[in-house]
Design brief:
The chain is mostly beta strands. About 0% of the residues lie in helices and about 55% in strands.
Length: about 130
């Protein structure tokens, strides 16, 4: 399984960005995907996740109402998106796409990074005031 993020960049406060994550390989084994972020010196935190059915979404309180996670599926695999609006400097971080395989036995909650076992390389988001 490969996860490749794109769409990060630098914006001013109040601006918007859209992140994408292309999943390829054994993506049919995935049952959850999500976005996580990490600042240097801080723990990685869950931002937004969803099951690959797309039937529900879960958000961190800090991004509720500003970020929207969606997923699309085609023959190549799943593509995960994160639309980020009303960005503020506290949103500055490296953003990672993650996936959880259906066979995984570890569960630390839907927004728990340790619940996910495949990770992309990350894309930097920087919001200036």
């Amino acid at each position: 399984l490969q996860l490749v993020e794109s769409g990060g960049g630098s914006v001013q406060a109040g601006g918007s960005l859209r992140l994408s994550c292309a999943a390829s390989g054994y993506s049919y084994q995935i049952n959850w995907m999500g976005w996580f972020r990490q600042d240097p010196g801080k723990e990685r935190e869950g931002v937004a996740v969803l099951p690959t059915s797309g039937r529900r979404t879960e958000y961190a309180d800090s991004v509720m109402g500003r970020f929207t996670i969606t997923i699309s599926r085609d023959n190549a695999g799943n593509t995960l998106y994160l639309q980020m609006n009303s960005l503020n400097p506290e949103d500055t971080a490296m953003y990672y796409c993650a996936a959880r395989e259906a066979s995984s036995g570890s569960w630390y909650g839907v927004l728990g990074p340790r619940s996910y076992n495949s990770w992309g390389q990350g894309t930097q988001v920087t919001v200036s005031s």
